[in-house]
Amino acid sequence: MGRAKDLLSFPLTAEFIQTIGGDEAVDLVKICLKKNGKCLDEDIEKEMKHLKITEIRSILNRLHYRGIACYNKTKNKNSGWYTYTWEIKKRRIIELILEQQSERLQKLEEKARFGESHAFFACKKACEETAFEIAAQYEFRCPECGEMMAPIDSAEKAKAVQEQITTLKQELDALQKAV
């Protein structure tokens, strides 16, 4: 249970699960992980009383589509009804996050390299940062508001991007160690 708590304590993880499954998905995953990752949708309904069973199943199906939630289906011989036992795949959550965030990391590193070799300009309103070549084509007037553009402190911008890269690498490293 401690490791499950660790997994959901990462902002990246909670944000990712919410993006995939909706606002209630994080609580639903917490409930499943609390029960060793396996539970019935009816068990979840007992703990999430504010949701209908159809809403719970909808969230589970969205998670299932991405391989985060899997189920075993068994048929009750007396009633003929099927029972679904759902399981949350922690490893799959991490795989998907690492895949998504490694793409983000790659883009940030490209942005850092591009920023090192280019000068950027912006108007006082900071409508849009524009590379020198494009700013020159607009005669250093903002294409959105028409204000004159001035150079941006590239060292400050590079520092901010580098801080994002460092933070993301630390989060990804910690996330990999969580499982």
Automatic annotation (TrEMBL):
InterPro entries: TF_E_archaea, TFIIE_asu, TFIIEa/SarR/Rpc3_HTH_dom, WH-like_DNA-bd_sf, WH_DNA-bd_sf. Keywords: Coiled coil, DNA-binding, Transcription, Transcription regulation. GO terms for molecular function: DNA binding. Residues 23-163 form the Transcription initiation factor IIE subunit alpha N-terminal domain. The keyword DNA-binding applies. Belongs to the TFE family. The winged helix domain is involved in binding to DNA in the preinitiation complex. Transcription factor that plays a role in the activation of archaeal genes transcribed by RNA polymerase. Facilitates transcription initiation by enhancing TATA-box recognition by TATA-box-binding protein (Tbp), and transcription factor B (Tfb) and RNA polymerase recruitment. Not absolutely required for transcription in vitro, but particularly important in cases where Tbp or Tfb function is not optimal. It dynamically alters the nucleic acid-binding properties of RNA polymerases by stabilizing the initiation complex and destabilizing elongation complexes. Monomer. Interaction with RNA polymerase subunits RpoF and RpoE is necessary for Tfe stimulatory transcription activity. Able to interact with Tbp and RNA polymerase in the absence of DNA promoter. Interacts both with the preinitiation and elongation complexes. This is Transcription factor E.
